[in-house]
Amino acid sequence: MSSDDSNNISPISRDADAVACSPSSTAVTYSDNPSPSSLPTVAPDPLSWPPDGKLCLEWIQHLMSVFEWSSRNLAPSAFPSVFPVPVFDALVLTASKILHKEPNCLQINIPDSDSTVVVVGDLHGQLHDLLFLLQDAGFPAQNRIFVFNGDYVDRGAWGLETFLLLLAWKVFMPHRVFLLRGNHESKYCTSTYGFEKEVLAKYGDKGKHVYRKCLGCFEGLPLASIIAERVYTAHGGLFRSISVTPSRRSKGKKNRRINLIPEANALCLGSLEELSKARRSVLDPPWEGLNLIPGDVLWSDPSMKPGLSPNKERGIGLLWGPDCTEEFLKKFKLKLIIRSHEGPDAREKRPGLGGMDEGYTIDHDVESGKLITVFSAPDYPQFQATEERYNNKGAYVVLKPPGFDNPEFHSFEAITPRPKVNPYYDFEEVIDSDEDLDLASMVTTDL
């Protein structure tokens, strides 16, 4: 199915023989009740790109089989033997073309009265937990829409596989699978928290090429979505208004360009129109200047303190209180805000807000609706330097008709045992969750 099939999307069965697409090897059929018997026991054939460029369910099941098997049986450097560079190039190019055409804020309309929406939080390269989540929630389908809320890579050891699998689902079902950007889909974070080194370890002399293509794809990821005109989703959350005033025109015929100067007024919430006009195609969203909205959407956090203020702990983005949640919901006639961005390590330092033991929290409960944080990486982070592991559950949110405003929370434990693998970053030196950012190093440079 290609991105041109928006008006011709057929229902999907999770049985591999329900589709007329046949890769070179039989794919594993993932069941509703995952068990060791559902995992591949022999080496699956390497992936090849379909001659017509169209993916099908069996191809994606084969992809999951390949990633599952290789994570347990191959050294990272052998990854190209099962997922060759030409296949990577074809997948990322196809997905990037779809993503770059989407608006900053997706308007996700519900096609059928029996459709549900699954909202997924941070995944952080925990491939095996993602495979379980997809089995537990049910694969994307005509009447089951998925919204992934960013942070697919870093910290975990299988960020590349996680991101590529989601890109494959996006290519297969572009109007049923939506991928939003997280703060870790950036050059700064991936250089600090392991994804860059992971890619270089897996693709060797082609690693820089693969990493560069991933960064370009990150730039195309939309920033937010509105589901059924009721639910706003974004990785970090709310954002400021960027008010500007024109400076004086220069005299003479030359240099007639009007320079815009940001107003030094008190912070106030931005509008969906401002969000739609923000420039998202930056490797590292800026923390100063006129293009602050992408950084706000990706890095901001809720607070129990009223008002809107700079997020000094992170050095980028905002903190917003329950009054701001109420204002945003009421102004845009919404019922829910669903965001992610904070795992158990971050939440243990946030007085007044709930922990992430169950994979979700209801942070604000106001007159017009609720603010929810969902985090889908259980037993996070994969590599922990603390004496005791957090042992948090992951969770995903299911929204159902008719209102899509009564969320169902599904918590789940981490898949164990994880394959043994070495970390790709010095996790003992970066225990904290994205704090004390080196802002100077976030200035984008050419690769």
TrEMBL record:
It is an enzyme of class 3 (hydrolase). Its cofactor is Mn(2+). The keyword Ribosomal protein does not apply. Gene3D superfamilies: 3.60.21.10. Keywords: Hydrolase, Manganese, Metal-binding. Residues 22-40 have a biased composition (Polar residues). It catalyses: O-phospho-L-threonyl-[protein] + H2O = L-threonyl-[protein] + phosphate. Pfam families: Metallophos. Residues 1-13 have a biased composition (Low complexity). Residues 180-185 form the Serine/threonine specific protein phosphatases domain. Transmembrane segments: none annotated. Residues 1-44 are annotated as: Disordered. InterPro entries: Calcineurin-like_PHP (IPR004843), Metallo-depent_PP-like (IPR029052), MPP_PP7 (IPR041754), PPP_phosphatase (IPR051134), Ser/Thr-sp_prot-phosphatase (IPR006186). Its EC number is 3.1.3.16. GO terms for molecular function: metal ion binding; protein serine/threonine phosphatase activity. GO terms for cellular component: cytosol; nucleus. It comes from the Eukaryota. PANTHER family: SERINE/THREONINE-PROTEIN PHOSPHATASE 5-RELATED (PTHR45668), SERINE_THREONINE-PROTEIN PHOSPHATASE 7 (PTHR45668:SF9). Belongs to the PPP phosphatase family. This is Serine/threonine-protein phosphatase. It comes from Gossypium hirsutum.
